[in-house]
Amino acid sequence: MKTQDLYQAYSTRMQKIADVKSASAVLQWDQETHMPPRGAHFRGQQISTLSEISHELATEASFGVLLQSLAAKEDLGKNEKRNILRSLEDYERSKKYTASFVRELSGQVNKTFHAWLEARKQNAFPVFEPELAKLVDLKKQEADLLGYDVHPYNALLDEFEKGSTVDLLDKSFDHLLPQLKELLQKIAAAPQVQDDFLHQHFPKQQQWDWGLYLLKQLHFDFESGRQDISEHPFSISFSASDVRVTTRVDENDFANMTWSCIHEAGHALYEQGLLAEYYGLPLGEACSYSIHESQSRLWENNVGRSLGFWKHYFPELQKHFPEQLGRLGLEDFYKGINKVQSSMVRTEADEITYHFHVFIRYQLEKKLVEGSLKTREIPEFWGAQYKELLGVEVKEDKRGSLQDVHWSHGSFGYFPTYSLGSFYAAQFFEEAKKQMPALEDEISKGQVINLLQWLRTEIHEKGRFHTSEELCREVTGKTLDVSYFVNSLLYKYKSIYTL
Amino acid sequence: MKTQDLYQAYSTRMQKIADVKSASAVLQWDQETHMPPRGAHFRGQQISTLSEISHELATEASFGVLLQSLAAKEDLGKNEKRNILRSLEDYERSKKYTASFVRELSGQVNKTFHAWLEARKQNAFPVFEPELAKLVDLKKQEADLLGYDVHPYNALLDEFEKGSTVDLLDKSFDHLLPQLKELLQKIAAAPQVQDDFLHQHFPKQQQWDWGLYLLKQLHFDFESGRQDISEHPFSISFSASDVRVTTRVDENDFANMTWSCIHEAGHALYEQGLLAEYYGLPLGEACSYSIHESQSRLWENNVGRSLGFWKHYFPELQKHFPEQLGRLGLEDFYKGINKVQSSMVRTEADEITYHFHVFIRYQLEKKLVEGSLKTREIPEFWGAQYKELLGVEVKEDKRGSLQDVHWSHGSFGYFPTYSLGSFYAAQFFEEAKKQMPALEDEISKGQVINLLQWLRTEIHEKGRFHTSEELCREVTGKTLDVSYFVNSLLYKYKSIYTL
Questions:
Q1: CA gap A45, A39 in Å, rounded
Q2: A306 CB burial (10 A radius; 0-12, 13-18, 19+)
Q3: Tens digit of pLDDT for each residue in B155-212?
């Protein structure tokens, strides 16, 4: 068979898998946005069936043979070769899972998720713990199935961040945390900024309109996407030309919707920027979780919490909410939206304390997986760490170790990608400013199209050609260097808190 | 293997097929209600892939062997036996299609649909005709593949209405049409009723609220369903506990939304009334197209256009629209909403002329399939029939032979089920009144729960146990008798037009 015919067969199979996965994504999106309550039971079953079908299609032995034979071909272009390489990596990783293990894991995830829901209702970690313990055991088995060097957590990290390791993460946090601690101490000693204005009454419809306005300003393409309401904001893609974002509106907390809109827009712009010609193929997929997060955080923080951005948009915002914000000054607005304050809940954290939340979860996951911490010891460990690192007293499980859904989904190794995302974002943004000297000036005029175009070319359109680290080197000339992130924070907060 | 284990394997496979079909239905629903415009391309591909997968699952040879061996078992209950019988019928029908024919047909349907869209834009049947001609050829081949007695159209009818034949339909129409013609002549000679009040301005949001109110009154279960807006109203089900209806709002035509809401609610109540324990199995599916339509029409016409129903709801309606309807009398409202007037467009037709629209399409399909009419002769035949039967001059293709989407979907044999639906509805409603002497009194108090409960027990919960004709005999003690329909019209219009 000719190489091009084999490649065509590969591409057809990959698109078929993408079709099934996208269908499953539509069902999940509907579940979170529109589904009537009693639809849940069969919807769960429908999503499981689609997962099973896409898993079968992706792991069929004959497909492995096809990938192997294509991997040996010389007469493929660079991009085709890279698609095959990535697909083969995925295939070989998937094949390590036995069918019985996949079933057992998915059954346990289901039980653990329901235990988590119930535990939150009762505000009691012990309701969650027995199921979580069983799930952690399965995750250890998974690490063994997958194989690893040095630390079993590396095997799990690899699912979310190919090439990341305990060693690399430890080094990053070791470099970062002492400096953040020092910064936090200085901020604590300085007069606190005010953000009361965020907690006035902001009517739902007006916030919704403001959110849509912001999405349009950021060039979210409404011909290829839409926004809806859900309990927790998320973004999801069914193809580069159908990308959905969701948000929620809290009438007494203006910050909630605005920056979640910008954050999800960042994810969505990445998905809308993937090349449709590679639909279903690795080059048509996002590079990694951390690079995805770098896009959401770059827009949310580096752009969306900058003074320049609000130089242009604060007057617009005042037009939307003259009563609430008409008398507020830009400087005070800027300081308020960047207020630093230790808190118990990760998703409510500022740009600095956020990474202590992540670090605590990372420590904990590592210890659970290596067996040096038992699941029943989680609340104690959690409380002690929050006390030590953030100085806060965790008074209830609901806002403590039960606050995140991730573990109940079986996601161990996911949290670190949130911090990595911020680190990459800072390094990318610094590079963008270097390459486009007028960028900050443009942003302060509300023009972000050149930034978006740069991200499209440098990051989005490359798909999964590179790993995160390769991409970082490709874009910035260096591997990940957390100093960019630290320095940007030092610079920013020095002026906000006049340190 | 034990019979129960075999049956379990059968049930698992059937549920898997239902999961994939339901997923496809979610994608179609989203496509018509929420999808951004550029999502269409990959959405089409995703839906095709799911159809292909469900077709493969349903026609796999090993599944056929399983069905055959279950069909030979004695130790199954009555319901289990019926499930197997129906599934085997479906399987054997599906197996008659070769894979290459399915591909060719679906490719031609796609081309024909796009030609139809373009033809409507240009208001020119000749743009549609060449693709339609090819599709008709394929439908003739399909009739040959399926096999038939007497007339090839019977093979196609069978897809939508098992057991229906040209002979039976001809007899029904022969009995019906002369009487309807006579009635129309009498009505034409009587003073016309007024319906101008329907064409005032009815604001969108208020119509929407009124529609939701009506759905609640009809016991549409919003815990197991929801309503959205789409260009053409439809209902669709993802399980008995997730049934969606859609509507459209025309601010200058009150009738448009109200009776489409009631019509779609009728379909949806049927789906919500199917037994969840039979999800994926024939006994958990609707009996047939005509019985489905009998439910929508019973609610829309026999209930929703009756004087009794509006005795209760017209005062409610006046509260919703005091400005538009506050000074109108109930009798005038009732007459207006039942105005009889020949028109060019089927979906705008009244209860009498509607069936001439269906009859014309039925004649035409029969002739196309038997080869006595060429596709290029359609507009002429269409015009002549509309002139002769309805006395209207068809002036443009868009509102003539291009008005319906059905043929472009390859649906030949579908239209007759619309008329059959009305006939069954009249017979069922007559039986309901006989069995529940208080029914009309209840309806005039706005109480329809006993009627719904009766339909649930007599029709919905039986699923596909019976064919349409068997069900009709089961429910009313007689096979379909079009006199019930004719008499109900004679009785109704005698009083409206004082004939």
A1: 11
A2: middle
A3: 999 999 998 999 999 999 999 999 999 999 999 999 999 999 999 999 999 999 999 9
Mean of pLDDT values over A209-219: 98
Whole-number pLDDT of residue A470: 96
CB spacing of B239 vs A42 below 8 angstroms: yes
User: By CA distance, what is A57's nearest residue in B?
Assistant: B53
Please state which CATH class domain A149-499 belongs to: mainly alpha
Residues 6+ apart with CB under 8 A from B62: none
Find, among A233, A105, A103, the residue nearest to A159 by Cα.
A105
The pLDDT of residue B244 is 98
Contact between residue A228 and residue A244 where contact means Cβ atoms under 8 Å apart: yes
- Asked if B242 and A42 come within 8 Å (Cβ–Cβ), the reply is yes
Gap between the Cα atoms of A386 and A366, Å rounded: 17
Question: Are residues B238 and A45, on separate chains, in Cβ contact within 8 Å?
Answer: no
Domain extent listing, chain A = 3-148, 149-499
Sorted by sequence, the CB contacts under 8 Å of residue B317 that are 6+ apart come out as: B210, B310, B325
Same CATH topology for A3-148 and A149-499? no
Mention the CATH class of domain B3-149.
mainly alpha
pLDDT given for residue B98 in this prediction: 85
CB contact under 8 A, B39 and A222: no
| CATH class of the A3-148 domain in this structure | mainly alpha
Cα–Cα distance between B410 and B50 in angstroms, integer?
Answer: 19
Chain B residues with CB-CB distance to A223 below 8 A: 36-38
Percentage of chain A surpassing pLDDT 70?
100
Mean pLDDT in order along chain B per 10 residues (499 residues): 95 97 96 94 92 93 97 96 97 90 88 93 96 97 94 94 93 95 96 96 97 98 97 95 97 95 98 98 98 98 98 97 97 97 94 97 97 97 96 95 93 96 98 98 98 98 97 97 97 95
CA distance A278 to chain B (A): 12
Q: Please give the CATH number for the structural domain made up of B150-499.
A: 1.10.1370.30
CB B369 within 8 A of CB B139: yes
Answer whether A36 sits within 8 Å of B241, measured CB to CB. yes
Closest Cα in chain A to B44:
A19
Residues of A in contact with B238 (CB under 8 A): 39, 42-43, 46
With beta carbons under 8 A apart, name residues in chain B contacting A53.
20, 53
Starting at the edge strand found earlier in the chain, the sheet holding B225-229 runs B225-229, B242-247, B235-239
Query: How close is the nearest chain A Cα to the Cα of B243, in Å?
Result: 9
Give the sheet arrangement for strand A225-229, strand by strand: A225-229, A242-247, A235-239
pLDDT at res. A484:
97
End-to-end CA distance of chain B: 69
Chain A residues within an 8 Å CB radius of B224: 36, 38-39
Q: Which residue of B has its CA nearest to A22?
A: B46
Find the catalytic residue in A129, A142, A264, A430: A264
Residues facing residue B228 across a β-bridge: B246
CB contact under 8 A, A30 and B35: no
Strands A225-229 and A242-247: parallel
Residues in A touching B36 (Cβ below 8 Å): 222-226, 241-242
Give SS3 for A353. Answer: coil
CB contact under 8 A, B36 and A241: yes
Query: Which residue of chain A is at minimal alpha-carbon distance from B12?
Result: A49
CB-count burial class (<10 Å; 0-12, 13-18, 19+) for B173: buried
Backbone phi, psi, residue B365, to 5°: -60, -45
Q: Dump pLDDT digits (tens) for A109-136.
A: 989 998 999 999 999 999 999 999 999 9
Supply the ipTM of this predicted assembly.
0.94
